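Example 3.2
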Amino acid sequence: MCRRCCGIALDMGSARTRAWVAGRGVVIDVPTVTFAGTDAVHPIQRGTIVDIPGCARMLRRLLGHRLPRLPRPMVIVTAPVLDGLAYRTRARAAVDVLRPHSVLTVPSARGIALSAGADMTRPLMVVDIGAHLTEVVLLSDGAVTDARRTALGTGDLGETTSPEQIAEAVASMLTAMLRQDRTSLTVDALQRGILLAGGGALRPEITYHLTGRLHTPLRVAPAPHTSAVRGAAQLLEAAHTHPSASGPFPSAAQPS
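Structure, written as C-alpha cells:
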C-alpha cells in the first residue's frame, strides 16, 4: 500500500463520530460511545473530550482493523474552534492509539467551507449546529477571525429547548459579533450569506426559524452532517501530495 492510501480524517462529536479512511471512499458514521464493562460511556461531551482512554478505545474499535500495520497513517482531526489547545492535546492523545506518523488539527468550520466549495478569499460566516454544541464562526482568507459558541444543539430539543431557542441563540451570537467587529468583515460575510452545517441543518423546524430570525441569505452545505469530515478528507489528500510528504516516515508520531 502506498503512503497516499494510508490516512484518516476524523470528526469526533458529542453524539456521532465520523471518519474517512483513504482508499475506501466512504464516511464511517457511528455513535460516539464506548464501553467500560457493561456500561456505555460517552467520552465526548458538549464538544469536549472528557475521557481520553475511552475515546482511544472507541477509535481502536472503529478503525484499528481498517488500517494496515505499515505504513503509519496521517490523521487529520476536526476541532471545535473555541476549545483551542486543550482539545487538540486531548485529541492527539486519543488518536495515538492508531499509531499515526503525524496528526494535524483543523477547525471544523474550515472543513465545512472546504467541503462546500466555498470561496474563502471572501469573508464567510459558518453556522455549525451539532447535537450538543452550536458554533458561529467568521472565516477570512480561510482563517478564523471571530467565533462564538453555545452549549445547545439538536440533542437538546424537547420540553426544555425549542427550535426557536436555538435560532435565537444563533442570532444573539451574530449580533455580538457585529457589535464587536471594528472592520467590515462580519457585515460583508452576512451580506454574502450564511453557510449552515451540522445535523441541525437537516432539521426543517430549525432552518425555518433561522430563516425567519436572520435577515440574511441562508445556504445549507451539501450533506451538512458530514461536511466537516469530508473537508478534512480534502485536506488529507492535499497533504499527501505536498512535496514534504515524499520522504521516509518518521519513526514516531510527530504532531504538527
